[in-house]
Amino acid sequence: MATFLYKIGRLAFRRRHFAALIWVALLTLAGVGAASAPAAGSSSFSIPGTEAQKAFDLLEQRFPGMSADGATARVVFKAPGGEKVTAKSNKAVVEKTVRELRDGSEVTSVADPFTGHAVSKDGTIAYAQVKYKVSGMELEDASKDALKRAAQSARVDGLTVEIGGDALSAVPETGATEVIGIAIAAVVLVVTFGSLVAAGLPLLTALIGVGIGVSTITALANALDLGSTTSTLAMMIGLAVGIDYALFIVSRYRAELAEGREREEAAGRAVGTAGSAVVFAGLTVVIALVGLAVVNIPMLTKMGVAAAGTVAIAVLIALTLIPALLGYAGRKVKPAGEKSRLLGGGRAAAAKDRPNMGTRWARFVVRRPVAVLLLGVIGLGAAALPASQLELGLPDDGSQPTATTQRRAYDLLSEGFGPGFNGPLMVVVDAKSSEHPKAAVTTVTDDIKGMRDVVTVTPPTYNAAGDTAMITVVPGSKPSSATTEDLVHGIRGAGAGITADTGAKLLVTGSTAMNIDVSQKLNDALIPYLALVVGLAFLLLIVVFRSILVPLKAALGFLLSVTAALGAVVAVFQWGWLSGLMGVEETGPVMSMMPIFMVGVVFGLAMDYEVFLVTRMREAYVHGENPGQAIVTGFRHGARVVTAAAVIMIAVFSGFIGSSESMIKMIGFGLAIAVFFDAFVVRMALVPAVLALLGRKAWWLPKWLGRVLPNVDVEGEGLRTRRDEGRRDPDQDRELVGV
Q: Model-level pTM greater than 0.70?
């Protein structure tokens, strides 16, 4: 592996014009594809195998043309204080608004609140239900503008009017904090390298990689049914790993220059050694992201595959474009320990034999491994405690900021019709196999009316054949409550008896039921997914480190960091700690896909630091150092760079906390805090402490397994034969620009 990558690094350095031209051409091609591709429609949200999805599919068959997945809007009216919406003047305003709403070309129906029993008992609040032919993301701007104009016209006439539903759904905004995150990354790179040129290379290559990845996703979004969240996630992860991978190779290149090697040789060795770690670190991230397919939720699978593709591009760019750009930079990239003149350079920054902070910290941990291990485990355990109170759910309009019209409409409907009105259940009765379909539907309706927490059961709506009926059930509790979940399970539980008595099948669907099914599906998939991803990565790390205990330690450390990160997410987004600082206006259940998503992404990123840091230790151990000294050597060469990489990744992820989309905000915070725990507590403290306690046993591998495993030579042992090749006199450095 190391020798192969060494050759690639030298070739890219020599043929830098060709390498740069290929990547510029790919970026241009992806950009043209994105610009010329048709606009992406709505990303369909289907959950194969769930009862809610089966009910939706049945409705599509039995009620053709009803557009079960079409957008809906609830235009909610509230009369001025002391008045009723049924008063003559107010009623006229509502009826005028309903007529205006019916004019849209994409509108299929508008329910008049006065004929559809959509007025609250006290007469102060009413709503008009608007249904569209297409989904919320596919609605034309003209339809959305017409909806807003109708509401504004009613406001002018004195009513309070708000709009709920998904008709006004919009692409999430990330805000200025994303740019701030990249700016922080730039500052960290300048401080790390002491050179503007060296600092600019990781940023440039990361942006090129993200540009290619996101443009490709945009170009394929319509054909592959990709949502806006897919490109945001790819950008988030692509930026973080792209900067980190380039950072490690540039850092190793500068270290090789400091040892006196020619620049082409240094580039080859940097790609051969640090590049090997990049390849395996990238593979762990790709495995974790592609492994999301195990959950069998198409949207989650597409998000994982798209992000994995962006990570793969980042790896290829680090191996080929970075050495090419180093060739262009020439002497502007200084050896390790030197700074550019602009930053006070032109001289060695410090004596080579002076121990740096990483060396001093490693020596401290090696002397007191038990104390460091206990302190780290106790600290992460305390952070993980809130995770024991984790509540899962999917966001609805009730989790929107109070400034939005969707949230105000949600609150008005709760006030006028009860908290369960915002999450009605749709019961579908398939009576095709029943001898008396209408009698079977009547039985279902009567049974549901007798259940606890049921406020309203609407009369059934039959299809043209009369063998399928829809019944709307309004719970007494809010959609995200455990009581509503119990009601869904209760209705489904009664279905078996109804089928036995009448032959009719009963299915429960709707957004609330779908959310319950999604949460259950994600919970059921968590353990198999964890076993698959951790198992595959464990085997991969055995190959990399040629050890059993080091990969085991890496996996256990990951479990600590991800559990602590979930605890922090619960504390902020569920309990409300520091919610003002994070811009969290409404607390509530944690997004259902958050645990499994964090397991996948954080595991991949955690293994980055494990591979980068521990391969340097193994390299020193393989080359003859004792275990304790190998730990110190690994920290001397890798601690500064791993610290910089972690700070950069935290900054990039934190930039997405400013997103208007609650899912992106939660993911950004969760990944940022997870990287902090994993890099600075697990990898920087627990890893060296455990390795110090294990000593030589850490690198033990059964002989029979050693014979079976391929030798991928991540440490660059094959390059040791070239020890004296390419050495130069540092004082006789030459500029290679244009070669």
A: yes
